[in-house]
Write the structure tokens for this entry.
Amino acid sequence: MKEELALFTAAERGEIEEVRLLVAGGVDVKVAKASNGCTALHFAAMNGHEEVVKVLLEADLAGERGQKGMAARHCNRNGYTALDLAGERGHKGVARLLRDAQSAAASANRGAGGVRMASALCRAVERGEIVEFWRLIAGGADAAAKDGRGFTALHLAAIHGRENVVKVLLDAGAELAATEINGHSALELATKHGFPLPPCKSCGWDANPPDPNDVSPSPRQLKAPW
């Protein structure tokens, strides 16, 4: 769509008035994606255009509960969120805006779909159902909610060693300190089941310092969540 392409170009170049015009004209920042999976927010974030990011986030955080912050938590085809790109390129102001937006969206979306959606998300993580996982995350499933057994999706991702799922869930508002029915956190479950998890600095988690000699790809470099 021509208007979407124009939005991507304007966001990349930092043309704030053009971005405002296109957003006001109806281009949906939540669903418009380039062929590489990037949203306008990705393009603005990677180039450090703070004011453009503010305009895009305002539109992204609008709408019904369950749909807020879809662009802020969206991963491109290489598994990167806009926050990841801003952090990698040292755009601290942009990264701060995106972290705040993700937290606000998680709080606003919490409870959307209730226990049934939480159970579906947990089931998708447990079974490794990638398409269903992304559908639920994009639909605003509460990443911090527990299923009928008392597990969050983060607990199950830790148990099954799904590293990239952990990153996505934390960005979507999952609580690292939450415990399951036996009082174990996700970190404790990962260790117990032999899956030590990588650090997630954008989420405030640096419990397992990376090995400088480890050249294996990080979760963010993988195209699929598992």
Summary: The domain at 114-199 is CATH 1.25.40.20 (Serine Threonine Protein Phosphatase 5, Tetratricopeptide repeat). The radius of gyration is 17 Å.
